[in-house]
Amino acid sequence: MKSYYIASCLFTARYPEVSMAIQGYIERRKDIEIVRCCIPNFRAKSSEDKIMKTGARSSWLDLPFCAEYQPGDTAYSLCHNCTNIVDEQNEGVHALSLWELVDADESFVFPDYSGLKVFVQDCWRTRERAGEQAAVRSILKKMNIEFTEAREHHENTDFCGSTLYREQRIQNAQYAPKHYVEQAAGKFLPHTEEEQLALMKDYCVQFDHPVVCYCHYCLEGLLQGGADGRHIAHMLKEGFEQSRR
User: Fold this and answer.
1) What is residue 56's predicted lDDT score, i.e. its pLDDT?
2) Which residues contact 125 (CB under 8 A, 6 or more apart)?
3) Number of domains in the chain
4) What b/e string do you get for 99-136 counting C-beta neighbours within 10 Å, with b at 16 or more?
5) What's this model's pTM, rounded to 2 decimal places?
6) Do 229 and 244 contact (CB within 8 A), yes or no?
7) In angstroms, how far is the first alpha carbon of the chain from the final one?
8) What is the reported pLDDT for 46?
């Protein structure tokens, strides 16, 4: 049985420094192999083009493209699309979040945020993943962060930024039809950019202090809506750099 970490082309393209810090932490563990993608031979060209222009270029090119999963293997990821695709395409493989790995690591050095008060934002793409949701909240406590639940949370969340108001990528529906076709009624319907912005602003009225999320799409929507959105990966960056040295 092997364990893998899917680095995520989209997250790496958007946040190369944080992605490299996470990959460094995974490499120092020496028990998890890092791969680029959840789909064999798939290339998100726009994301890879961005990565090629950053300091992550050489490391990215050295990574295996995709794992050859076997039943009993474990795949960790911070991308919910990757998690859902691995889950639906590979029977017997445990698809877990990066946050569950970090929360279980007794040697992890958690940054101290001195009682910072935040809201926590769950993602529609992970509404069924109680283990991931619990790990995020446990990590917030370990970082000395006090949190309040968003209006809709856990399995009732219906938020994933403005992505639910525009067409989704074809491969998501193709490789994870349960999540992105069968369970997506009323989602991914085209809206204008103005309509998307208005929806995000209306949603974010509920937040009067920072909002921590664990999805890059959620972060995009929170920032669109004018909230002080923060991705938990960014808040853990110092810990990724210090842990397992």
Assistant:
1) 74
2) 80, 81, 84, 160, 179, 215, 217
3) 1
4) bbbbbeeeebebbebeebebbbbbbbbbbebeebbebb
5) 0.94
6) no
7) 25
8) 66
Coil, strand or helix at 91: coil
Residue type, 109: V
Averages of pLDDT over runs of 10 residues in the chain (245 residues) are 92 91 94 91 69 76 88 97 96 97 97 98 97 98 98 96 94 95 95 97 97 97 98 98 84
Q: Is the dihedral of CA 23, 52, 83, 238 positive or negative?
A: positive
- Supply 86's token pair: 């691995």
Report whether 144 contacts 112 (CB < 8 A): yes
Among 65, 78, 106, 81, which Cα is nearest to 21's?
78
Q: Which residues form the domain of 13?
A: 3-242
Residue with tokens 């691995």: 86
Q: What is the pLDDT of residue 64?
A: 87
